[in-house]
Amino acid sequence: MLDRDGFRPNVGIVLVNQRNQVFWGKRIRTHSWQFPQGGIDRGETPEQAMFRELHEEVGLHPEHVAIVARTRDWLRYEVPDRYIRRDARGHYKGQKQIWFLLQLMGHDWDLNLRATDHPEFDAWRWNDYWVPLDAVVEFKRGVYEMALTELSRYLPRYDARNRYLRNNQRCNAHGNVAPNEQIATGAMELPPGGTFQPDPGTNGPAHHEK
To answer: Minimal CA–CA distance to 15: which of 48, 52, 60, 49?
Structure first.
């Protein structure tokens, strides 16, 4: 389903945890990393498409998340010809997207990269909100920057000082954890089908649009 300008309606999802870190997924069999996204089917609203894609790509249901915000207007990117199927060249131009900011209300183990027979990701991690754009396929970087900038004003407040105090850890006057009391981050529970890769690569095989 294309609009008159050749753009396919699409949704993008920025999923944050309680520390305002974002879900960052590695596209299956590539070294490219991205947010969940997918097309809007005929008859769907952007919100309906978002919840469908959320389950298909990440395995989450509506009760696992809260909608925090969405972009006001469509954000567009053009796809280079080399990434477009031959039969679509000439009339398909790219994607126009509504982006949603979601907060995870469930747990890490609720995520499931194998919720369908056609997984989009084969690894994931929690990343700082301002993701490394050099790990994103080049033609999407501008939209990512626009979406993250617009949605950043709606990020839930995160007070690191209070979190450390709740865990009986001493903080200094600036809210930093006292020396030798850093939280261990090496151990984490992964969802079904998930692997953790702390250092996303920047190069990979050809990107194919969903």
So the answer is: 60
The β-bridge partners of 16 are 22, 103
| Strands 65-70 and 37-39, bridge-based pairing | unpaired
Locate 13 and state its tokens. 């999802």
Whether the pTM exceeds 0.85: the reply is no
| Residue 105 phi, psi (nearest 5) | -100, -10
Between the two ends of the chain, the Cα-to-Cα distance in Å is: 13
Interatomic CA distance for residues 113 and 205, integer angstroms: 20
Q: What is the pLDDT of residues 167-187, one digit of tens each?
A: 444 444 444 444 433 333 333
Q: What is the DSSP letter of 206?
A: -
Half-sphere exposure of 167 (CA within 13 A, CB side): 13
